[in-house]
Design goal:
The complex is a heterodimer of chains A (393) and B (266).
Chain A: E1 2-3, E2 6-7, E3 10-11, H1 20-34, H2 37-51, E4 57-59, H3 61-64, E5 71-76, H4 86-99, E6 104-109, H5 113-125, E7 128-134, H6 135-140, H7 142-150, E8 154-158, H8 165-179, E9 183-185, H9 196-204, H10 206-219, E10 225-230, H11 234-240, E11 250-260, E12 265-267, H12 269-272, E13 274-278, E14 281-285, H13 310-317, E15 321-327, H14 328-342, H15 348-364, E16 369-374, H16 382-389
Parallel strand pairs in A: 5-16, 6-7, 6-9, 7-8, 10-11, 10-16, 11-15
Antiparallel strand pairs in A: 1-2, 2-3, 4-5, 11-12, 13-14
Chain B: H1 3-13, E1 18-24, H2 30-42, E2 47-51, H3 62-73, H4 78-90, E3 94-98, H5 101-107, H6 109-118, E4 123-125, H7 135-144, E5 147-149, E6 151-152, H8 158-167, E7 172-175, H9 190-199, E8 206-209, H10 215-222, E9 227-230, H11 232-240, H12 244-264
Parallel strand pairs in B: 1-2, 1-9, 2-3, 3-4, 4-5, 6-7, 7-8, 8-9
The chains are: A alpha/beta (393), B alpha/beta (266).
Chain lengths: 393, 266
């Protein structure tokens, strides 16, 4: 049952009391906006003239030959302004921020995609923007730090804990506890306390709504399976949502298996974690026997997170969605294959979904129609990929 | 009636505020923590909060984060928290635990509450557990006879204050300001406003925390609060001290000063 911000036993609010007022205000603003024609019209127009929606679908025929001959359809969120699905959410939240009369947004970022998207939305709407980013990540993703600064955002390197995405979220929450009166926390995924998992899903569900209609037009039927990579899980929920009532469509989330789930060095939270509370929500968590969060590992900074959205935990437990882990090497092989067969450089996050398609295509066979959310482009990952493949820079 | 209930009643009778100190289990070391607890009790502290360090403490500022990191890296477990609690309660002060929800949930909610009671503890402060998610916890603390202590903030509405304090036992933890733990030069005026609002909805004692580090601050809070909570100021002294003994001496001196402060407010 999905009720009051709970997805079965998952979700809810586990936050300092200081934030409850802001979460209630946000919940009310989100609820009102969903039924407000002027809000919907404003966001739709922004998507048409700024984001570049609807995003197209590309059939990946040469790539499909390597997936057991399955037909592979790519939902091209990588072609959105700023290069990923993240823009869908930040434009929605930025509009809400203005409606709530707040002037400042804060955001966390791992790889920098959500930070860049947040800085973009803030520039567009004239909001002050502060992005928290783990010190480790500011080094790994220096280019995105520069992009955010060009867009007028302040980037704060986070030096606490593991100095990565998890700690950037902690620091953003501390800022929010302190400055909640004039500040909106623009959380970048379908995790965190209610209403974030619901609200962020609502801003991304356009992906699945478009894709479902496009697949019906293109193939005359629904796909056999919909695949997406899962870190926090926002692009996956976005494309899954419209297909949840279609019981014959398999929903498959591909988590970051890192060096392999069996090694303990991974970010496959549903595959290798257990129920717990992290960052304000109850979901699956990578944790030790004392309930301490375990650091995750993945070649993909955007999937390198020890939690996952509560709706994914729920879809997993009720058997509506399946979750599998894809190791770094398999993801990078799929990354290279898409580059060379289709002329598309995907984000390394997305490459996990592509690697999943290679496996699922072979399992189902040549009659399979697979829809994959191509959630982001790989420009930001060129350095990581060059290092991985030994291309001198 | 828990030991904490008795202490809060006693200070009310003495027309003063209680001095409540915070220290994380396993900090500065397992043995050092036990020594610090005894030093604080000797110096006149009325109650001690033992922190169960957690990897993602969103309510804590840099000082407590650093102490928590040290403790977690040293391998502090629930058993160490209960041992420190026992050390504290054996000194005669009221002893409670403060921790985030996940370590409790992972340990087992009922088992955790019972272990608190078994080790002489009076209650648990849970800064990220909202009353909406508390059904299992309220049942468990009721069964074990310990106080569920909730935090309220300046942003908490009057309506919500009523609902939160209705579930609370021992004392209401009033956050003096919007922010995380850590010493501030001045304790914000929002504290007195919050305490008066809480007074209108509950008879429970009200303790104020966040940002308190000096005798003067303790004195000004003691004018209207039933308890004054000090954490980061003690931890900073322990972190900065050239030796463990120097750190223990420093927290002893500060606790004595603060103990005077909570007696000077009215």
């Amino acid at each position: 049952m999905i009720i009051d911000g709970h997805f079965g036993e998952y979700g809810g609010r586990f936050v300092p009391e200081a934030l409850i007022g802001a979460l209630e205000e946000l919940e009310a603003a989100h609820k009102a906006s969903q039924e407000d024609p002027s809000f919907i019209a404003e966001l739709t127009e922004l998507h048409r003239t700024y984001t570049g929606r609807p995003s197209i679908i590309t059939e990946a025929k040469r790539f499909g030959e390597h997936a057991g001959g399955a037909r592979i359809f790519l939902k091209r969120e990588d072609l959105n302004h700023t290069g990923s699905h993240k823009i869908n959410n930040v434009l929605g939240q930025a509009l809400l921020t203005k409606r709530m009369g707040k002037k400042r947004i804060i955001a966390e970022t791992g790889a920098g995609q959500h930070g860049v998207a947040s800085a973009t939305a803030a520039a567009l709407m004239g909001l002050e923007c502060v992005v928290y980013m783990g010190e480790e990540d500011t080094r790994r993703q220096a280019l995105n730090v520069a992009r955010m600064k060009l867009l007028g955002a302040e980037v704060v390197p986070v030096t606490s804990g593991s100095k990565t995405l998890k700690d950037a979220i902690n620091e953003a929450m501390r800022d929010w506890v302190t400055n909640v009166a004039d500040t909106h926390y623009m959380l970048g995924t379908v995790a965190g306390p209610h209403p974030f998992p619901t609200m962020v899903r609502d801003f991304h569900k356009i992906i699945g709504i478009e894709a479902r209609e496009q697949m019906l037009t293109l193939t005359g039927k629904l796909p056999d399976a919909v695949l997406a990579c899962v870190g926090g899980g926002s692009n996956a929920i976005g494309i899954f949502n419209a297909f949840i009532p279609d019981a014959n469509v398999r929903l498959i989330g591909l988590e970051a298996g890192g060096d392999g789930v069996e090694t303990g060095r991974h970010a496959a939270t549903i595959t290798g974690g257990s129920p717990g509370v992290l960052h304000g929500t109850r979901s699956y968590v990578l944790q030790d026997d004392n309930g301490q969060t375990i650091e995750s590992h993945s070649i993909s900074a955007g999937l390198d997170y020890p939690g996952v959205g509560p709706e994914h935990a729920y879809l997993h437990d009720i058997g509506r969605a399946e979750y599998r882990a894809i190791n770094d090497d398999a993801a990078m092989a799929a990354f290279e294959l898409l580059c060379k067969t289709e002329g598309i450089i995907p984000a390394i996050e997305t490459a996990h979904a592509l690697a999943g398609a290679l496996v699922i295509g072979k399992e189902i066979g040549p009659d399979a129609n697979l829809l994959i959310n191509l959630s982001g482009r790989g420009d930001k990952d060129v350095q990581t990929a060059a290092e991985y493949f030994g291309i001198p820079l | 009636m828990t030991q904490l209930d008795q202490v809060m009643a006693k200070v009310r009778q003495e027309n003063r505020a209680a001095l409540i100190a915070y220290i994380p289990a396993g900090f500065p070391s397992q043995e050092g923590c036990a020594k610090a607890i005894r030093v604080l009790a000797d110096a006149g502290v009325d109650a001690i909060e033992i922190g169960f360090p957690y990897s993602d403490p969103v309510m804590d500022g840099p000082v407590i984060q650093e102490a928590a990191d040290i403790s977690i890296k040293a391998g502090t477990k629930a058993a160490d928290v209960f041992a420190a609690l026992k050390v504290a309660s054996d000194t005669g002060v009221a002893a409670v635990v403060m921790t985030y929800w996940n370590p409790i949930a992972k340990y087992g909610v009922e088992k955790f509450a019972q272990s608190i009671a078994d080790n002489g503890g009076s209650g648990v402060i849970t800064p990220d557990l909202t009353i909406e998610e508390s059904d299992e916890w309220i049942a468990a603390t009721g069964k074990s006879g310990i106080n569920p202590i909730y935090v309220v903030a300046p942003s908490t509405s009057n309506e919500r204050l009523k609902n939160v304090t209705a579930k609370t036992g021992g004392f209401v933890y009033a956050a003096s300001m919007m922010g995380v733990t850590g010493s501030r030069d001045a304790v914000s005026s929002t504290a007195s406003e919050l305490v008066s609002r809480v007074r209108t909805v509950t008879e429970l004692p009200i303790s104020v925390g966040l940002g308190v580090s000096t005798r003067e601050q303790a004195k000004s809070l003691a004018a209207y609060a039933d308890g004054v909570i000090v954490g980061s100021a003690f931890i900073k002294l322990l972190l900065d001290a050239p030796s463990e003994q120097a750190g223990l001496d420093a927290i002893s001196d500060l606790a004595k000063e603060l103990a005077l402060g909570v007696r000077e407010g009215r």
